[in-house]
Write a structure and sequence with these properties.
Layout: E1 43-51, E2 54-55, E3 61-70, E4 83-87, E5 90-91, E6 103-109, E7 114-121, E8 127-136, E9 141-145, E10 152-154, E11 157-169, E12 172-175, E13 180-187, E14 193-201, E15 207-214, E16 218-225, E17 235-245, E18 248-255, E19 259-260, E20 264-274, E21 278-280, E22 286-293, E23 300-306, E24 312-318, E25 323-329, E26 338-339, E27 343-345, E28 347-348, E29 351-359, E30 368-377, E31 392-399, E32 406-412, E33 418-424, E34 429-435, E35 444-445, E36 449-451
Parallel strand pairs: 2-8, 10-17, 19-28
Antiparallel strand pairs: 1-3, 3-6, 4-5, 4-7, 7-8, 9-11, 11-12, 11-15, 13-14, 13-16, 16-17, 18-20, 20-21, 20-24, 22-23, 22-25, 25-26, 25-27, 29-30, 30-33, 31-32, 31-34, 34-35, 34-36
């Protein structure tokens, strides 16, 4: 991402690098004669000037002139010597040669400030260099915005920024035509990251119109970026902060089933938000779970929660009965409301196998053991666990040091929910009681009981 600076450079002043005109050793960057062989005649610039040395957009024409002479005799100009001239934009001309007095003059138009350099060399002569720095006058500019952006907007809303760019010349502010304008949208503060930028140009009256789109909460700043940047100071204007409400959606919604009637189940889902693209909603985004009883048209809120890592949420639900479940994101200043699909849950009574026990223990191999216990269920609003009669309970055995369960028989609970079975003790192992459940009651397991057979 690009970083923005609100600093405005000061007006640049003229400065000229003095050109040494003697053959004495030169400091770094100064004009100096190059090393020559014994067969070459040393030469030097006895003069090198650029006029003017401070330019502005209305006066960018300069005259580059100089004179080249023998180092041993500065009065003896070197005629017909080719001179290479370079400026900020490259060559300032070709075919430049000194006249009979060793002088030359070239006129050029600069697009910006920078270094004007000259180099002279020819067969039989050494080399000579010179340079002058030309500065550019930067005029003050200003940007005005007609109207700040609205404080709130929906994601993807169109944003139009209009205003004027002006330049000060001679103490008078006047419209700046054909200036480049950039409207930048910042997130994480006005000195933060730019997520989008939109451009336009001013008309003859200095006015601009930028059409943009906003995707997330942030602030707008409009910058003037003149075509000839060296001749204008950069400037910008605050166009206001904008809180953007982003669309949301819920995916992968699931209410665990079958669910215990009067007990608690669990809903799981993921929440996404749409910025430039769909992405996980941030942690802490509030969510809620709603229930609609079978045959009813009304929804009611059952529980609330918050989004966790990567947009995922888990919200417990107290199950009042059969019906539809749905997750929702409440509408807020930051996010628009959304709802998941509907998941129908068949609510059943939770069951419990109580007091399961295999006796006696320890027991001799080949003797009979008795398996006993009781089956009960949870009834909403009843702190007691009523017995569950006339239900089949199955028994399984797993021998020690094995992982395989073997079916050992079954029994039907009596009017008080009790069940029992006689079995033969053959080897050490674990006994288990299991109720498979039905359309009204959930399945359940008893606590496994280990028997030591001797």
């Amino acid at each position: 991402m690009h970083k923005a600076s609100f600093g405005v450079p000061a007006i640049l002043l003229a400065a000229v690098l003095t050109v040494p005109l003697t053959s004495a050793p030169a400091a770094a960057g100064a004009v100096a004669p190059a090393a020559e062989t014994a067969a070459e005649t040393p030469i030097q610039f006895t003069a090198f000037t650029v006029t003017p040395q401070l330019i502005d957009l209305d006066d960018r024409d300069v005259t580059v002139s100089g004179r080249i002479a023998k180092t041993a005799d500065p009065a003896a100009g070197v005629a017909g010597l080719p001179v290479s001239l370079g400026g900020p934009d490259g060559s300032l001309g070709t075919g430049v040669r000194t006249d009979a007095s060793g002088a030359f003059t070239v006129r050029a138009t600069l697009s910006r400030g920078g270094t004007i350099s000259a180099m002279a060399m020819a067969a039989g002569y050494g080399q000579a260099y010179a340079r002058v720095v030309v500065r550019a006058q930067a005029w003050p500019t200003r940007v005005s915005v007609d109207r700040r952006v609205s404080a709130r907007a929906e994601r993807g809303a169109a944003v139009t920024l209009t205003g004027r760019v002006e330049v000060e010349k001679g103490g008078v502010w006047r419209p700046m035509p054909q200036a480049r304008v950039r409207a930048s949208h910042y997130v994480n503060g006005a000195s933060g990251d730019i997520d989008h930028a939109y451009g336009a140009r001013t008309g003859a009256d200095g006015r601009f119109r930028v059409n943009a789109t906003v995707y997330r909460t942030g602030s707008w700043v409009v910058f003037a970026n003149p075509f000839h940047q060296d001749f204008y100071q950069w400037t910008g204007a605050d166009a206001g902060e904008q809180a953007v409400r982003q669309p949301t959606k819920i995916e992968r919604f699931d209410a665990a089933e079958p669910a215990p009637l009067g007990g608690y189940g669990l809903t799981r889902f993921r929440v996404l938000r749409q910025a430039e693209r769909w992405e996980a909603a941030p942690s802490g985004t509030p969510v809620a779970v709603y229930f609609r009883a079978r045959g009813s048209k009304s929804w009611r809120r059952v529980n609330g929660g918050y989004v966790g890592a990567n947009g995922y949420a888990e919200v417990p639900m107290r199950v009042p009965g059969d019906g539809d479940w749905q997750a929702r994101v409440p509408g807020s200043a930051e996010f628009s409301a959304s709802a998941s699909g509907v998941d129908y849950v068949d609510a059943r009574f939770a069951t419990f196998i109580q007091g399961f026990n295999a006796t006696p223990e320890p027991v001799r191999k080949g003797r009979k053991i008795t398996l006993r216990g009781g089956l009960a269920y949870r009834e909403p609003g009843n702190v007691l666990l009523p017995p569950l009669a006339r239900r089949t309970v199955k028994f399984y055995f797993r021998a020690a040091k094995t992982g395989k369960w073997t079916y050992a028989g079954s029994d039907v609970t009596d009017g008080n929910g009790f069940f029992g079975l006689k079995a033969t003790a053959k080897r050490d192992g674990v006994w288990r009681a299991y109720f498979a459940g039905d359309k009204t009651f959930l399945r359940s397991f008893g606590k496994d009981d280990y028997i030591d057979v001797r």
